[in-house]
Write a structure and sequence with these properties.
about 120 residues, four-stranded antiparallel sheet, mainly beta, seven-stranded mixed sheet, 11 strands, about 50% strand, globular
Length: about 120
Amino acid sequence: QVTLVESGGGLVQAGDSLRLSCTASGYFEKTAVAWFRQGPGKEREFVTVLRWNGGFTYYADSVKGRFAISRDENTVYLQMNALKPEDTAVYYCGLLTGSDWKQWRSYDYWGQGTQVTVSS
């Protein structure tokens, strides 16, 4: 049994920063971890991914240069800078044990999400 718990969301103004955390517990195959987000009335979309053992990261164009993913043991972080209103969404972390990391349906474990709201 694997559980993921996200934290760190909140209400901020445009230009502010937040750091989200995702703590994983239980046994799991270490392939990759990613952040996805889902805004109001939108589909869940890819944000960023990190190979568990390091050496590879990838960011969606919408967050490139502003967001950064990192890992310390079983806690994954998403540093978000220069936040924009369009970043408003529920942010989820997921663990991947297979392949096709760009698709949220490929991920095996998910947290409950944490709300990020960015005001103008």
